[in-house]
Design goal:
By secondary structure, this protein is an alpha/beta fold. Strands 3-2-1-4-6-5-7 form a 7-stranded mixed β-sheet, sandwiched between helices. The chain has 2 domains: 222 residues, Spore Coat Polysaccharide Biosynthesis Protein SpsA, Chain A (Alpha-Beta Complex); 69 residues. The protein contains 10 helices and 7 strands.
């Protein structure tokens, strides 16, 4: 199987017939075997009824129905596990992504990249509610992860299978897939793609997701920078706190012993003690993190490296 198109959907019954027809039209012009994997993420409308009807007339179509609404990351993970293609393309089920852009993503993969992300131009969404927050989020994610993309939120992306095999999805991590792929050594590129206004159904995205995205971004930054060496972040914070606290304590001791300055009712004394204890706690957390990381890798025999290719025996 050359190509798998994975589409997580939730309450998109009205869009599915046209979506599948347009993807079929695109795949018919590509060489090699291909499939369409649609994951019904606990829809409460007639999405699964529509998918059952479409499945009878489209041999490429495979359908996975989740028991409840687990979220887009879980739906994508289910699609990745089921996909058989050497290349996996993801897209939304709302007809805002254009299947005709799939060949452009595949062409960029042929240039040697492992992940190709779409960049919606021009973006067909409200400016204040969707586009402006997206610009700010993309800038922040690019700065923190070190993977500069204009449009992390674009669902239209292409991945080589071997990259996805080394990535686990949790929470809202699906939007950070290019950064996670870069973490495992993938070459990431971006291509402009078309974006159409939503014609039917309701958008599942909004500003309410912002706190969850920010928390997951902190997780991604930690995984990229300190996953196998947590002591270097927690230990550094602990050492700085302990050194500052010890310095304040030494200053207070000098004032008390040699200058006769009383320590009673001085908040700085409590601050010095607090900083010392915080420092000890952070160093302890770092050491515990090191033990957990080693247990994780050693118990599962999970390597701390990924081989790209081998030559010779």
């Amino acid at each position: 199987m050359k190509l798998s198109v994975v589409i997580p959907v939730h309450n998109e019954a009205a869009n599915l017939p046209e979506l599948v027809a347009r993807i079929e039209q695109t795949l018919a012009g590509l060489e090699g075997g291909s499939e369409i994997v649609v994951v019904d993420d606990g829809s409460t409308d007639d999405t699964f009824v529509a998918l059952r009807r479409l499945h009878a007339g489209h041999p490429r179509l495979r359908v996975i129905r989740l028991r409840t609404n687990f979220g887009q990351s879980a739906a994508l993970a289910a699609g990745f596990d089921a996909a058989k293609g050497e290349v996996v393309v993801t897209m939304d089920g709302d007809l805002q992504n254009d299947p005709a852009d799939i060949p452009a993503l595949l062409a960029r993969l042929e240039e040697g990249y492992d992940v190709v992300s779409g960049w919606r131009r021009p973006r067909q969404d409200p400016f204040w509610r969707r586009r402006l927050p997206s610009v700010l989020a993309n800038w922040l994610i690019s700065r923190i992860t070190g993977v500069a993309l204009h449009d992390y939120g674009c669902a239209l992306k292409a991945y080589r299978r071997e990259v996805l095999d080394h990535i686990e999805l949790y929470g809202e991590m699906h939007r950070f897939l290019p950064a996670l792929a870069k973490w495992v050594g993938a070459a990431v590129a971006e291509v402009p793609v078309r974006h159409h206004p939503r014609r039917q159904g309701r958008s599942k995205y909004g500003l309410g997701r912002t706190p969850r995205v920010l928390l997951d971004l902190l997780t991604v930054k930690f995984m990229i920078s300190y996953w196998t060496r947590p002591i270097q972040i927690f230990g550094l914070i602990g050492l700085i706190s302990a050194v500052v606290g010890s310095g304040l304590a030494a200053l207070l001791a000098y004032q008390r012993l040699f200058l006769g300055v009383p320590l009673a009712n001085r908040p700085i004394l409590l601050l010095a003690v607090l900083l010392i204890f915080i420092g000890i706690q952070f160093v302890s957390i770092g050491l515990l993190g090191e033990m957990v990381v080693r247990t994780y890798h050693e118990s599962q025999r999970k390597p701390i490296y990924i081989v790209r290719e081998r030559l010779g025996a």
